[in-house]
């Protein structure tokens, strides 16, 4: 395959791009000098929404963008509100909308590739993006929107309506409360929706990949009324076509509206989103057969061992409302609520490896999943003085109600294939094993209710050069499980746990912060799956009690104004994550016992050390060990799916002498990891290289950007992750062209 073999659809699309740019330029109204000066050029530092009256920013306003525009100075820390990275005893990263556009990142997973503490995997036999933060999993349904859990899609999330993607590293039960899905012990992700800026925005983008996948995105923002108090931001996008994987096709649609009001004391916002994803012939995870003695090399990067009849439809409607009111100059109260409805249905395939030669079997299933969630939170943030000691007091309440409906029909029999030379197998007959009611009307299988109350105080000494944070969150978790089909209750437990947090920040100089923390996490226990790798699970649908984790961390942060760095060491103690093991009789057993300890060192660098040169990278080294396993058989082994190290190196450079031209590159390197608890099956170290370029210019005083990116330049074939005890293959080479015009 040539490096950039653009498909036939590219030619008419390129013509359409040129026509749209020309029409936009000629149809645009005349631009005043003032408008031209207000317009931002992508080669300049974006400072985000700016208060032109030079007033102090509103409480809980988003932290400003850091030098270089790729990351922000801080992010939202749940009950603590929006915080500057130098003032909190935690490690965090916040990626901006500019980075998303510059890299043509389509999903949240594409953005998180920039973080050396995060790696990505596929979901359990579906298309969901799962993440590994500090060696522990985070599922899509445990990502929050503007601090609110339980209302985002659980498989794929588009970036087209996002302003920030924020990563908090470490257990966060105190910060945000317990996650609805039980993951996120190694860290959490929060998404910030787009808001209208004071400068009106009219932006149209189109892109196309080398396989002919075509996308369009319209982004409109406007403020209205006296002092621009009312704002509206509308995003409309769709993409459709073949991906880089053979015979895999995707279609995505998104419509979002973000409304806000900013008064003298009252601020209101509302976000409403509809997203639909269709994946046909989707290549998903690969299970490991019981007789496998070694993991074979990954097949060619674009090989698709999933059958053509496999299809997934994911439809989500969600939204939230938020209100903030300044009681006075020092105290702010807030309340927020949201809800979502999810409808997923698919014909799924499962591929199980049988030997090192790549021989495998394929089974099929039809699964329906519906979910209705409601989430609420309220709180109070304030500051005051007691003598020479300053205080930042935070009080918060949260509540999440989730209800899941599921039904399945596992096909009878299986077909032989090979991951190197896939066979186009026919869809197996239905009726092998069924559960739930009609697939079009699945029955309730799970209900969860979680509520919590939190309080914290940050004490400031020595003119706030020494900050000590202490807090508690009391959480109550109620989980109810119901049998497929009959609706009979199979699990019912309620448990309350109090999780503390302690943190210390010492700033001996203005540009240096030393920090340390002890924080705990809480997650609802896992539920044993019905099948694993085509085998029936002996303890299917068994639900386990909540598990508590603990983290101790210390480090240093440096902020030199135009560039910065963080260095930290941590230790996380976590009850062993659930996993399935195949038995000699062909069945499987879900296991949840013992303890996993992850110890790591993290280094991150970011910013613009010299004008026109932007850096974004880091390195993570992880040592992991499990104990308390059944009979002590696997005591001392590494945990499944935890790489030995992770390295990122990213650079974005404005080419001297070529006005408006920027080039960028990124390297991802990930160390080896084990795929089984016995540590007999391992994945080797892998590397991936991405490159890109942009050209920013003006047409009739309108900003235009042409972009090109190539992901996985060498088309490297590799197993990306063994999270969950199954394999995720890395994406093949994909080249994309884009054009953006502000009109």
UniProtKB/TrEMBL annotation:
Signal peptide start and end residues: 1-27
UniProt keyword annotations, A-Z: Cell outer membrane, Ion transport, Iron, Iron transport, Membrane, Receptor, Signal, TonB box, Transmembrane, Transmembrane beta strand, Transport
GO cellular component, one term: cell outer membrane
GO molecular function: siderophore uptake transmembrane transporter activity; signaling receptor activity
Every TonB-dependent receptor-like beta-barrel domain range: 261-713
Predominant cellular place of this UniProt entry's protein: membrane
Subcellular localization: Cell outer membrane
InterPro entries reported for this sequence: Beta-barrel_TonB, Beta-barrel_TonB_sf, Plug_dom, Plug_dom_sf, TonB-dep_rcpt-like, TonB_rcpt_CS, TonB_sidphr_rcpt
Residues annotated as domain TonB-dependent receptor plug: 85-182
GO terms of biological process kind: siderophore transport
PROSITE patterns in the cross-refs: TONB_DEPENDENT_REC_2 (PS01156), TONB_DEPENDENT_REC_3 (PS52016)
Pfam family, one: TonB_dep_Rec_b-barrel
Residue ranges of the motif TonB C-terminal box: 726-743
Keyword Membrane part of the UniProt annotation: yes
Topology term for the membrane: Multi-pass membrane protein
Keyword NAD: no
NCBIfam families (UniProt xref): TonB-siderophor
Similarity remark: Belongs to the TonB-dependent receptor family.
Protein name: TonB-dependent siderophore receptor
């Amino acid at each position: 395959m040539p490096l950039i073999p653009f498909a036939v659809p590219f030619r008419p699309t390129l013509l359409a791009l040129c026509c749209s740019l020309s029409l936009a330029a000629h149809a645009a109204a005349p631009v005043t000098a003032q408008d031209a000066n207000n317009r931002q050029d992508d080669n300049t530092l974006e400072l985000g929404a700016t208060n032109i009256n030079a007033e102090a920013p509103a409480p809980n306003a988003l932290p400003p963008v850091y030098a270089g525009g790729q990351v922000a100075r801080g992010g939202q820390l749940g009950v603590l509100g929006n915080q500057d990275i130098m003032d909190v005893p935690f490690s965090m990263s916040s990626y901006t909308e500019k980075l998303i556009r510059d890299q043509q990142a389509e999903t949240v997973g594409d953005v998180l590739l920039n973080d050396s503490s995060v790696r990505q995997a596929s979901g359990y036999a579906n298309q969901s993006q799962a993440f590994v933060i500090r060696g522990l999993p985070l599922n899509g349904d445990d990502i929050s929107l503007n601090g609110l859990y339980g209302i985002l899609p659980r498989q794929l999330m588009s970036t087209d309506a996002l302003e920030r993607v924020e990563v908090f590293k470490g257990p966060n039960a105190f910060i945000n409360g317990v996650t609805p899905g039980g993951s996120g012990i190694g860290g959490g992700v929060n998404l910030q929706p787009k808001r209208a800026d004071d400068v009106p925005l009219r932006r149209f983008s189109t892109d196309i990949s080398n396989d002919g996948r075509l996308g369009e995105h319209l982004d409109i923002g406007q403020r209205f009324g006296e002092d621009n108090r009312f704002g509206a931001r509308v995003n409309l996008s769709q993409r459709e076509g073949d991906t880089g994987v053979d015979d895999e096709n995707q279609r995505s649609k998104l419509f979002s509206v973000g409304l806000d009001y900013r008064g003298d004391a009252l601020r209101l916002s509302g976000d409403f989103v509809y997203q639909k994803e269709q994946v046909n012939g989707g290549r998903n995870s690969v299970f490991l057969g019981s007789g496998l003695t070694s993991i074979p090399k990954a097949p060619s990067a674009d090989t698709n061992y999933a059958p053509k009849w496999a299809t997934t439809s994911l439809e989500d409607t969600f939204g939230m409302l938020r209100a903030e009111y300044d009681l006075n100059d020092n105290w702010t109260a807030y309340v927020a609520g949201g809800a979502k409805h999810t409808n997923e249905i698919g014909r799924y395939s499962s591929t199980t490896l049988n030997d090192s030669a790549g021989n495998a079997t394929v089974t099929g299933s039809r699964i329906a999943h519906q979910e209705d969630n409601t989430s609420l939170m309220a709180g109070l943030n304030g500051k005051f003085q007691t003598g020479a000691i300053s205080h930042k007091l935070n009080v918060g309440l949260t509540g999440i109600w989730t209800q899941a409906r599921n039904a399945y029909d596992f096909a009878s029999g299986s077909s032989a294939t090979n991951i190197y030379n896939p066979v186009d197998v026919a869809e197996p007959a239905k009726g092998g094993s069924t559960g739930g009611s009609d697939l079009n009307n699945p029955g309730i299988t799970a209900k969860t209710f979680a509520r919590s109350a939190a309080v914290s105080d940050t004490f400031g000494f020595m003119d706030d050069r020494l900050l000590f944070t202490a807090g508690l969150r009391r959480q109550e978790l109620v989980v109810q499980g119901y049998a497929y089909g009959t609706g009979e209750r199979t699990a019912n437990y309620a448990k309350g746990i109090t999780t503390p947090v302690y943190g210390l920040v010492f700033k001996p100089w203005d540009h240096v912060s030393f920090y340390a923390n002890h924080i705990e996490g809480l997650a609802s226990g896992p539920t044993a799956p019905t099948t694993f790798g085509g085998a029936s699970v002996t303890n299917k649908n068994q639900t386990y009690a909540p598990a508590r984790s603990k983290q101790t961390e210390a480090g240093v942060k440096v902020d030199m104004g135009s560039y910065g760095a963080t260095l930290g060491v941590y230790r996380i103690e976590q009850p062993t994550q659930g996993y399935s093991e195949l038995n000699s009789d062909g069945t499987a057993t879900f296991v949840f016992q013992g303890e996993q300890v992850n110890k790591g060192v993290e280094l991150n660098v970011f910013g613009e050390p010299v004008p026109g040169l932007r850096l974004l990278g880091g390195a993570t080294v992880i040592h992991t060990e499990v104990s308390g396993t059944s009979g002590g058989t696997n005591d001392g082994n590494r945990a499944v799916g935890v790489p030995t190290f992770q390295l990122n190196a990213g650079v974005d450079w404005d080419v001297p002498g070529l006005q408006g031209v920027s080039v960028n590159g990124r390297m991802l390197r990930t160390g080896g990891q084990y795929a089984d608890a016995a540590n007999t099956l391992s994945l080797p170290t892998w590397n991936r290289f991405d490159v890109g370029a942009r050209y920013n210019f003006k047409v009739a005083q309108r900003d235009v950007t042409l972009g090109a990116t190539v992901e996985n330049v060498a088309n490297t074939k590799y197993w990306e992750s063994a999270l969950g005890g199954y394999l995720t293959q890395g994406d093949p080479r994909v080249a994309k062209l884009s054009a953006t015009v502000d009109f």
